[in-house]
Each structure stands twice: as C-alpha cells, then as structure tokens.
Specification:
By secondary structure, the chain is α+β, with helices and mostly antiparallel strands. The chain has two domains: about 130 residues, no CATH class; about 150 residues, Aminopeptidase (3-Layer(aba) Sandwich). It is built from nine helices and eleven strands. The protein has an eleven-stranded mixed beta sheet with strand order 1-2-3-4-11-5-10-9-8-7-6, with helices on both faces. A hairpin with a 7-residue loop joins strand 2 and strand 3. Helix 1 packs across helix 2.
C-alpha cells in the first residue's frame, strides 16, 4: 500500500496540530513541507524489506515475520485514516507498543481504544502493552512519555548567567576517549535508579559521533575537575534551523548543584545562532532534566501519550 499525495498532506497537517505553536513563530509552509517529507521517509524506511528484516531479526519475537513490522494504513471512513505500526520503547523487546498517527484530532481515550479494536488481532504475537499518539497538551492518559521542550537561542542568551557558570569550562570533544567515562557514569546512575534504566538510556557511541563530527560535543569541567558531558546536534525543527540537545550528563558528585542549567546556557551561548530553535525531548519520569529545561525558558509544546491496551479489553 502506498500513501497518496492527499494522504501525506492530511497527515502532515494533523501532525502539525500535535504541536502547541501558540508561543512560537515559524513559517507554516516550511513546517508542513518538512513534516510531509518525514512522513514519506519514515513510511518508506519502515516498509523496506531491509528494515523489516533487521527489526525482525533483532527482536526475535516468537511467531512473527518481517512483514509484521510494516507500517500500515487504516481507513475509518469519512476521509479519516491512521498510520499504525509496532514499536518497542527504548528498543526493549519487553516493552512493545502500537504507534498511531491519525490524520484527524484525537479528542479522548475512547477514540484510541476504538482504533485498537480494529487492529489488535494483527499484533497478537507482540502482545503490545500500550498505544501511543502525540498531543499538543497534557491529556488524561495512562502516562506521558517524552515531551518536546523548545525555545529560541536568543531568549536563552538574554538570561543572566547562572551561579557557578563562570567556573565551568567546556572543552570540545574530538575523539571517542570520553565514552568509557560517560558509560560508567550511566551504569552508576542505573544502579541507583533501576526504574529509569529503560527510560533514561545511554546513547550509543555511533549516535554520539554525530555530535562530535558537528563540533557540538563538550566535556565539562568545574574548577578544573571533569563533571559532565553535553552534546547537541544541528537539525531542523518544523522547517527551521535548530540545535537538538542530544545529551546532558552530570556525574553523581555534581548532581543537585544547579549546574545542568548552567551547562545548557553556556553551551547555547557558545555554539548556537540567535535565531536557532533550542530543543530536546525529555522523558516525563526524568524530573530533574525536565526542570532544568524549564529553568532555561524551554517550553513544553508536544506530549507523547500512552494508553494501556488492557483497558480496551475490559
């Protein structure tokens, strides 16, 4: 099955509606073009034989085949359609969920559960735990996953430096030598917070190399002592120049001292253009990171909503 041009336009428009743009100025046409391109790209990628085979071989879910990982299109009538497919939270085999991308606004949980009833037989072997969709506001669901937090670079730069910021030194990373230190720090964190091990995860070395290659990764020192890593990626957000926070990590000794927000502000001042969007996604369970983003003026504009599938079967 292929997406028609009309399909793509309708999905892109509704995808844009999942962002709260009330405090953000941008070119709507550029935003819609980028979203359209992303929808087509994701559809083609996830439906390629190579990717379906790769996912099937990686997860090794009993009684499944490669084609079970395909993205599909559900027609509900009245021009209402939904793109849907299986996902695994954080890449974990034991956390499967069905991702829903409708071309119409979802107003309540019941609408989501009605969609699930129409497709659930296709996912019996996966035994999905949740259904997910995006919303421009907090919604009455079982839990919120990631939240987009966004502001302009110039607005962060206008803020006064935070206490302790003057003692921070950001040294550009140029190779992989930092990674063992970074990895051991995450291992220590996960021992203390096993509940966050599958939600607040270590980034792979390959993904971090993108930041290194763009000159947007730094080791952070406080009065000469190494205490953290901060990494960004040049990107586009809704058709606009942006820098995405790929990682902000502080070792145990330095947590709780307000230095994360100082690291962020100093990074933005050093490495971004005034008109860039500064953004990132933060897991709702990671309250310190969420509060840090808010403290630097980043605003929540999009919420990943999850509903337990068992509700649909009551």
């Amino acid at each position: 099955m292929k997406l028609t041009n009309d399909d793509v336009r309708s999905f892109a428009q509704e995808e844009l509606n999942t962002f709260d743009l009330s405090n953000i100025e941008l070119d709507i046409n550029l935003a819609l073009k980028e979203l359209s391109d992303e929808i087509v790209s994701e559809w083609n990628e996830l439906n390629s034989n190579e990717v379906m085979d790769s996912r099937n071989n990686y997860f090794e879910v009993p009684n499944t085949k490669s084609s079970d990982y395909a993205e599909k299109l559900l027609e509900l009538g009245g021009n209402k359609k939904v793109i849907y497919g299986i996902r695994h939270m954080g890449g974990h085999k034991d956390l499967p969920f069905i991702n829903l991308k409708p071309n119409f606004g979802i107003n309540n949980v019941r609408e989501v559960l009605e969609i699930y009833k129409k497709v659930k037989e296709e996912f019996t072997a996966f035994n999905p735990l949740y259904l997910s969709f995006w919303s421009p506001k907090k919604t009455d669901v079982d839990f919120i996953g990631s939240t987009y937090l966004v502001t302009r670079s110039k607005d962060i730069k206008l803020m006064k430096p935070w206490e302790g910021e003057a003692s921070l030194e950001l040294k550009k990373v140029v190779d992989d030598s930092y990674y063992d230190w970074y990895k051991s720090g995450y291992e220590e964190f996960h021992k203390e917070r096993p509940d966050l091990e599958k939600k607040v995860t270590l980034n792979s070395l390959d993904s971090m190399r993108d930041s290194v290659g763009q000159g947007l990764m730094y080791e952070v020192y406080y009065d000469g002592e190494k205490m953290g890593i901060i990494a960004g990626e040049s990107s586009s957000l809704l058709g606009h120049s942006a820098v995405y926070f790929h990682e902000i990590f502080i070792s145990k000794k330095w947590k709780g001292k307000g230095l994360a927000k100082a690291m962020q502000r100093k990074f933005v001042e050093m490495s971004t253009k005034d008109d860039d969007f500064i953004w990132g996604t933060v897991d709702s369970h990671n309250l310190p990171s969420y509060k840090t983003a808010l403290s630097n003026g980043r605003k929540p504009i999009r919420y990943e909503c999850f509903i337990k599938t068992k509700v649909a079967e009551i």
